[in-house]
Amino acid sequence: MKNQDVTAVIALRGWHPAISHTEAVYMFPEASVKRTEARRLLVLQGNCDWSRANLMSGSECVLEAGGIEKWQSIDALLNNIQAINVQNMAVECWRHEGKLPVKTKEIEKRVGELFHNAGSTFNLNNPEKRFGVILDNSAGLVAWGWMTGQGPGKHGWSAMRANKRPFFRPVSIEPRLARAAVNIASGITNGCILDPMCGTGGIVIEAALSNREALAIDFDPVMVEGTKENLAWAGVAATVLRGDSTNCIIPNNVKAVVVDPPYGRNSMGQKGLLEDTITNIVRQVGECRFVIILPTEAVGTNLDEPVKTEFSHPLLTAIQAFEIPVHKSLGRLMIIAEAINK
Ligand SMILES: C[S@@+](CC[C@H](N)C(=O)[O-])C[C@H]1O[C@@H](n2cnc3c(N)ncnc32)[C@H](O)[C@@H]1O
C-alpha cells in the first residue's frame, strides 16, 4: 500500500499481535486493516474515531497523518514528515523487535528541530500533541505520525493483575486477554455483553471499564458476591446475577458473549455445559458474537497467525481461533464465533 493510501498506522503491543490485529479489525470496522511485513504494525485505510485505540488492550497507539516505509536514514525520514506549527508538542521515538542502527534520541532531536523550524513549541512533561516515530527492526520499517493512545511505556497491561483485586481465584482471567475478548465480541455495537460464567468478574470488569453495559451470571453464590466486590473496587457497574447458564433467562439486548468455562478435574461434563450454555443463549437472543476461551495442552509460540480449530456447535459458525501460551503445559484457545440462527 502506498503512503497516500494509508490513513493511519496502528502500533501493537508485543503480547499477542495476531489477537491484537483482530481486535483492531473489530474496533475499527469502518476501515480496512492490514498487516505489514512487521507483525506489530498495521496499516488502516478509512476514517474512524481513532480514540477507540485507548480502549484496546493490544494497541500502543494509532499514528495519524504520517506514513510507513523501509528505514533508510534520518534525512530520508525527515523528508517524508510534513512539519507544521503545533503548540505544546512532543516527539517520541521507540523501537519494536530489536535495534535498527540509529539512536532514538537522535531521531527525537532531529524531528523536534524540524517542527521547531516550522514554529512549533514543546512541552515534554504535559504535551497536547505527540508525534511518534517507531523503528521496527523485524522488517526494517519506520512508521511515523500523530499519536492517539498511550504509546509504549510502563503503564500498559503488564502492570495490571487480577490478583490485585479484593476477590481473586487462580481461574481469574488476565485483564489484557479479557479486554481483547470484550473488544472482539462487542466491537462498536451497542448492546449488552454477557459473561454467563463470570467467576471473579474479570470479563465484565473490562466491559464496564470500556463503557459497555454488562451482565454477569454465575452458578456459585461466592463468585456472584466476589464479582460484585471486584466491580465496586474497580469503580464500575454491571448487573450480577446468580443463575445456571444452561437454562437462565437472557435479556434480548445481549449482543455479545464472552465465556470462559470451568476446566480441570472438577469440571466433569464441561463439553455439555458449554454446548448447553450456547444453545440457551442463542435460542433467546439470536444474532450475537461469541468469544469462547478454552484451556488447551501445551501450545506453540506462534503469536502471529490464527490457528485451525475443530470447535463446532450447531448454532454457531467459528470465524477464527488463536492459541495463547500460558506456561509449558497449559495454553488457552480463544475462539471467535457467530450465531447463525435462533
Ligand atoms: C473458569 S471460571 C471463570 C473465570 C472468570 N473468567 C474470571 O475471570 O474469574 C468458570 C466459572 O463458571 C461457573 N459455572 C460453572 N457451571 C456454571 C453454570 N452451569 N452456570 C453458571 N456458572 C457456572 C463456575 O462457578 C466458575 O466460576
Structure, explained:
There is one protein chain. This protein has 342 residues and is α/β, with parallel strands linked by helices. The protein has two domains: 3-148, VC0802-like (2-Layer Sandwich); 160-339, Rossmann fold (3-Layer(aba) Sandwich). The chain has seven helices and 14 strands. A seven-stranded mixed beta sheet has the order 2-3-1-4-7-6-5. A seven-stranded mixed beta sheet has the order 10-9-8-11-12-14-13. A hairpin with a 2-residue loop joins strand 13 and strand 14. Helix 4 packs across helix 5 (202-209). It starts with 7 loop residues before the first strand and ends with a strand.
Give a brief rundown of this model:
The protein is α/β, with parallel strands linked by helices and 342 residues long.
* Spatial strand order of the main sheet: 2-3-1-4-7-6-5
Q: What is the CATH class name of the largest domain? A: Alpha Beta
Helices, by number, come to 7
Distance between the termini: 41 Å
| Total number of domains | 2
Q: Number of DSSP strands?
A: 14
Question: How much beta, percentage-wise?
Answer: 25-35%
Mean pLDDT: 93
Major pleated sheet: 7 strands, mixed
Helix coverage percent of residues?
10-25%
CATH superfamily of the largest domain: Vaccinia Virus protein VP39
User: What structural class should be given to the helix and strand makeup?
Assistant: alpha/beta
Rg of Cα set: 22 Å
The hetero molecules present are:
S-adenosylmethionine
Overall 3D form? elongated
Order of helices and strands: EHEEEHEHEEHEHEHEEHEEE
| Low-pLDDT windows of residues | none
Classify the fold: give the CATH topology of the largest domain: Rossmann fold
CATH architecture of the largest domain: 3-Layer(aba) Sandwich
